[in-house]
Amino acid sequence: MPNYGDASYWEDRYKSSENTTFDWLENYSALKDIISSLNISKETGQILNLGCGNSEFSEHMYADGYRNIKNIDISHNVIKAMGERNKDKKEMTYEVMDVRDLKYKDNTFDLAVDKSTIDALLCGEDAFINVAKMIKEVQRVLKVGGYYMIVSYGTPEYRMLHLSRKFEKFNIQVLKIEKDFVEEDGYDKHHYIYLCQKLEGADEISKEFFDKTIEELVKQQMEEEDVQEESDKEENKEIEQITETNGQITNNNMFVVQNENDNRETNMETNVKMDISKNDKKESKIKIEDNKVISDVI
Ligand SMILES: C[S@@+](CC[C@H](N)C(=O)[O-])C[C@H]1O[C@@H](n2cnc3c(N)ncnc32)[C@H](O)[C@@H]1O
Fold this sequence. Notes:
Elements: H1 7-16, H2 28-36, E1 46-50, H3 57-63, E2 68-73, H4 76-85, E3 92-96, E4 109-115, H5 117-121, H6 127-141, E5 142-152, H7 156-163, E6 170-178, E7 190-198, H8 202-245, E8 247-249, E9 254-258, E10 265-269, E11 294-297
Parallel strand pairs: 1-2, 1-4, 2-3, 4-5
Antiparallel strand pairs: 5-7, 6-7, 6-11, 8-9, 9-10
The chain binds S-adenosylmethionine.
S-adenosylmethionine (SAM) binds next to helix 1 and helix 5.
């Protein structure tokens, strides 16, 4: 699986896909009604697209009348290409910026759109810490009453913990949208939309609790790494023991066991692969109406 959490992965991907566009998860037309329900002024509303990539989302939003749209991404290649492509749209800008360190003033935006950028960060190293940094920054640059709209494949069970940390103060509504296609049996059939409205007092709470949250996350991560290291050691020990008695490690990372009573070989991969897109299948409280969107407050 590609390393979606690594900035250099995106830089390479956009280099080799110059002059193409691609919208992750959902496009503007699927989200238009939800956005319009937020009552953001098309003329004066300030909009931020976090990790815009080469999506046409902002172009369609602009065509629908929204004017002040700032698009940011960590990839120089994609910002150059998308800026060039949209140079005629004067009020819409493209800028290289890290979502964990936004160069905007506090209380600037009415809407921040995150279409699968949180999913990308969650695939990388220090995932929980990076997501906390991004959300702290998004909350800071939103006006009180403004919305952080996340469009994600992640179910509430895997996303709500990031939106309910001590330094955050949002009113959150979770919606779901039926996917156009389902990859395979067993995969969730929905994409989730988290509408997080910044509440009064959020800035104060963030100042008080953000640093503590990061300290806790760093500690938690170190503990998890220790546990992982121990379990890797145990696993290696077991492999060594089996190797001594039954087989040999080959140079392609496959452990080959020769069964004495049977001439067939059994291949066991020694690398553990993590399926980051595995979604939980638990029933949620959210309803679907008219086969498309609906709502429920968590
Ligand atoms: C899954 S893609 C989504 C692209 C786009 N939002 C869409 O809906 O099609 C994730 C995007 O996040 C960008 N990204 C990853 N890490 C980032 C960071 N730290 N700061 C800004 N952008 C980032 C990537 O370059 C990529 O364009």
